[in-house]
Amino acid sequence: MSREDYISALTKGVCTIVFNKKDGTERVMKATLDPKVVPVVKESNTRTTPPTNLVVFDTEKQGWRSVIINNIKSFQ
Fold this sequence. Notes:
- By secondary structure, the chain is mainly beta.
- It is 13% helix and 38% strand.
- The protein has 1 helix and 5 strands; from the N terminus they run H-E-E-E-E-E.
- It has one helix spanning 3-12, and strands at 15-20, 26-32, 53-58, 63-68, 72-75.
- It has a 5-stranded antiparallel sheet, covered by helices on one side.
- A hairpin with a 5-residue loop joins strand 1 and strand 2 (26-32).
- The longest helix has 10 residues, at 3-12.
């Protein structure tokens, strides 16, 4: 899948992402970019995300996380 495919799916609802963290451990995360679920950000974020990463909202931990796209093992 391309980065755009991931973003498109995440904006439609909650997805399960299985990936390897930087330390090599596997992580399963329920994530989304759905505007109905993601909290409203009051301040503008000036950080840019590298095209190799995907920034998502972790619905279980209620926080923003970054995933390296090449480390994604499965996406549902």
